[in-house]
Each structure stands twice: as C-alpha cells, then as structure tokens.
Amino acid sequence: MSATRVLVLNSGSSSLKYQLLDMSDGSRLAAGLVERIGEGASRLKHSPLAAGGAARETTGRIDDHEAALRAVAEELSRDGLGLDSPELAAIGHRVVHGGRSFTEPTVVDDAVLAEIERLIPVAPLHNPANLTGIRTARALRPDLPQVAVFDTAFHTTMPEAAARYAIDVRTADEHRIRRYGFHGTSHAYVSRETARLLGRAPQDVNVIVLHLGNGASASAVEKGRCVDTSMGLTPLEGLVMGTRSGDMDPAVIFHLARVGGMSMDEIDTLLNKKSGLIGLCGDNDMREIRRRIDEGGADAAQAQLAFDIYIHRLKKYIGAYYAVLGRVDAVVFTAGVGENAAPVREAAVRGLEGLGLAVDDRLNAVRSAEPRLISPEGARVAVAVVPTDEELEIADQTYALVGGGNA
Hints:
By secondary structure, this protein is an alpha/beta fold. It is 38% helix and 19% strand. It has an 8-stranded mixed sheet with strand order 5-4-3-2-1-6-8-7, sandwiched between helices. It has a 6-stranded mixed sheet with strand order 11-10-9-12-14-13, with helices on both faces. A hairpin with a 2-residue loop joins strand 10 and strand 11. Helix 1 packs across helix 3 (127-140) and helix 10 (286-295) crosses helix 11 (300-325). The N and C termini lie close together (7 Å).
C-alpha cells in the first residue's frame, strides 16, 4: 500500500491544530483543533472531512500535548485514519523560528531538536510549543519521519542589505540579531499561486504579498525568492496588527522604562498584546471596526482613526517594496483580513494609480474561496486575492522531502 498521507501539526502553547491530507490528490481527510490544553475546560473539535460526516466536539481536561495528540489519534481512528495507518508517510510540523540554521524543510533528529531549542531566546513564545509537538509525535510514532517546516525559511534568501539591522556587527552576530521574517509558508504558497493565477512561472514574476490576519506581514518576492519582508527579529516589527504595534521608534521603550516606570515585561506585553488595532480603538477584529465606522455613532471616530493608521502603514510598505523590486507584476492580499475585507483592499491601493494599482469595485466586492483578480481589465499591475493554505504548503514540503515515505 502506498503511503501518501501527511499529518500536519501546529502546536501552540496551549493548543494543537491539525490536518490530515492525502498528497496523491491534495485532498483533506480530517482537520481539527485542541484548545486550552492544561486547563479544566479543554476542548477538541474534529471534522472528518473525507467521510463527509458531522463535526464532533469533546470537552474535559486535557493535561498536556501528549494527551492532546493521543486524543487526536483516537478521533482519527474513529474515521479509519489512525496514526498507525501504513498510509501515513510523515508528520509535518510548523516551527516558527529556524534562525539562519534552517533554510528548508528538515527531517527531525536529535541534533535538529537541539538547534530548535537553542533558538528559543529569539522565539520564546513559539519554539517551545513547537518542540513539544515534535517530541510528542516522535514518542507516538518513532518509526515515522518527522519534518520541521520553518516560518523563517522562505525569508533566508533576503540579501544582507535587507536582513541586517544597522547596529554594531559584533554585537548583532553574538546575539543573533537580524531580520528573519515570519509567515514564510504563507508567503511562499501565495506568491507561487499568484504566478499561476497570472499564467506565468514564479521565476518570471515580481510579487508583493500582503498577509493580513491578526498577525500581519508583507514581503517583496522577486522571481520566486523573498528579497525583503516586514517582520524582523520577532513578529513585532512591520505592519499594524491586531494586538502588535509594528514599526515604531525604539526609543519609545526607553521612554516607557525611564519616564513611565514600566518594567521590560510590562512593555513587552504592551507592544505585543495591547497595541495595534486593539490599542488604538479597543477592537482587533477588522469586521467589528468596519461595523463601527459604517454605523457611525460615538465610537466611530476612534475606529476610523485605527483603520486609517492601519491603511497608512500598509500603503507605506506597498510603496517601499515597489521601490525594492523595481518592477511589480502583482500585489496580492491573503489571510483572514486580506481575503475577506474588501474595504481594506480598496483603501490600501487608493491613490496609487500612478503605480499602476487599482481595484474594480465590482470584482473587489465578490466573496470567494478561489484565487481571483480584482484589478480592472488591462491594469498595468494585477491586484489579486489568493487564499493562503499554510497546511497544504507544509504537507507539500514534507511529502517532497520524504519522497513518499513508506511508499
């Protein structure tokens, strides 16, 4: 029997997202989420996509990630898709930070685990959870290839001029301070799918990718390779996000510490969890912000200001990456906000007609799960919406690396 299935795991600090895909045709067999791991009110939501059955939900305490993965395995077994299946070729893991060590998907061994652990200081919120997921999966299926797919890998092609901060080189090297970028699996998938939408090869097009979700990042992709991206050492840099500030004067931190009397932990929490849209207007959901604007009323002005700041930063990055690339074939929107918020897309390119950018109002208003152009016919630069599929990208990279695993 040919092994063509890949289980994709995305382990968070208290959650475990998963999808099981059949790489013979890219179909999804099952998907789900375990949340609030280690809490009394843990919940597992499972969807048997291949069987077409109803989604199932169970509640009750799930102590740790090992228990979570065992619970997932039981749900998959109920659908005849268990982890012991000979059709399972590999398990692919999302790992947020690979530093400079990992530039491509990597089969996990003890040395790889040690290096991911060494990178914890530059990804303290993400890499520990990713490691837990890998170790748990290895314990359950020690015979199966475990593949780490890194968020940072797509961005390792950035030239030094884009990746370096202008600080003392020795200090930067000693503490591994440079711009790594994140959301790499999304940027890789979306830039490639945009080329396909245009009917061209990835190496023939230059694309600006705008991954706009609660976390948001932009990238400049030249002939299929990333040459710049908005996130840096951490996911804090760059665009205005749901709860993150994005770009700001670093001296704000000194000011808050010296004048505001805030601790480093308090400033960290402020910039990562209490800034961005939620800090500006109290909402980090773009749908709610647009509702407040559209309905008017007492709090509409604050929502409008948050929206305007969000769009201003987005336009700056579009213009900057246009300059970096020199020639742009497409600007593409993806992720939750990018795929669904037509007002964001319209506002982001409004006034950029001189750069060849515009949207067709009718096309922009269409809601669809399919890749599509929203620019007017004959536009000099295509504006597109391409739904991201990070799980498929991780599965593709995993399956390509193991060569069909046990096939």
